[in-house]
Amino acid sequence: xxxxxxxxxxxxxxxTLYYAYPVLQKPMAASLDAxxxxxxxxxxxxxxTGALMAIPVGRWLDRRGGLRS
Length: 69
Prior knowledge:
69 residues, 2 helices
């Protein structure tokens, strides 16, 4: 049940993020005093960075473990 809940909430969360982006792109660009191209480039860079770091960080967490209290 926990895995199913995580899968559903992750799908809804990512879907909301990516569908809201075109609506929020112009206001974000205006508030940052940046072009729409720069804002889109920042999103693309963050997604690619997350994808590239997922495997090494996952391996590091497997070796070291998660947060310890």
